[in-house]
Design brief:
single chain; two-stranded antiparallel sheet; four-stranded mixed sheet; 4 helices; 8 strands; alpha+beta
């Protein structure tokens, strides 16, 4: 008879079955080879007026697209500046991205940016045309619970976050001090 998830593991480790031999291991999608970055392709969400920065003296901010973005991509891609262009970290495009194809920013309407919280990897969901919907937030919450990585997001102008207990406590303390969440 198979042990229950909270029963001691039958291997004798002393751990609960769910934390030992019954542990669920998430598999990476087979369509994205490990250690290979995705190509932006025709996605220009980060350049279309959803992110902020100054590129060769041209200000880019929410509502103001990059001066160099054209249909199909960046017109100065090979010569683009280090900051903000080359240092920008779209979590969908990076090597070993945990996010599925449907999370490509121009399809999702949300850019997932890799950031740090207490020196650990975290994510910021930035609108690229719409606020994150319930399905996106649900997927991110499941991902956060599996990995322990927190994320920040904005709904109707309200800044929110989701993450492990230490993150929640940190955000509560920030709110009590009147500090911005991010």
């Amino acid at each position: 008879m198979k042990p229950g998830r909270n029963d001691p593991c039958s291997c004798g480790s002393g751990e609960k079955f769910k934390k030992c031999c019954g542990k669920v291991i998430a598999l990476a999608p087979a369509s994205v080879p490990v250690h290979t970055a995705r190509d932006c392709g025709s996605c220009t969400a980060c350049c279309d007026g959803w992110m902020a920065g100054t590129i060769n003296g041209h200000e880019m901010k929410p509502g103001t697209p990059c001066h160099y973005v054209r249909e199909g991509g960046c017109s100065i891609y090979a010569e683009r500046p280090e900051s903000p262009c080359r240092t920008f970290s779209c979590a969908w495009v990076v090597a070993d991205s945990p996010f599925p194809e449907e999370f490509r920013p121009d399809r999702l309407g949300v850019i997932i940016v890799r950031i740090k919280w207490r020196e650990q990897l975290a994510y910021l969901l930035r609108s690229a045309g719409r606020d994150p919907d319930a399905a996106t937030l649900g997927a991110m919450q499941r991902f956060s619970m599996q990995t322990g990585r927190p994320f920040f997001y904005e709904i109707a102008g309200e800044k929110l976050g989701f993450g492990p207990p230490a993150f929640q406590q940190d955000m509560l303390q920030r709110a009590q001090r009147g500090e911005a969440m991010w």
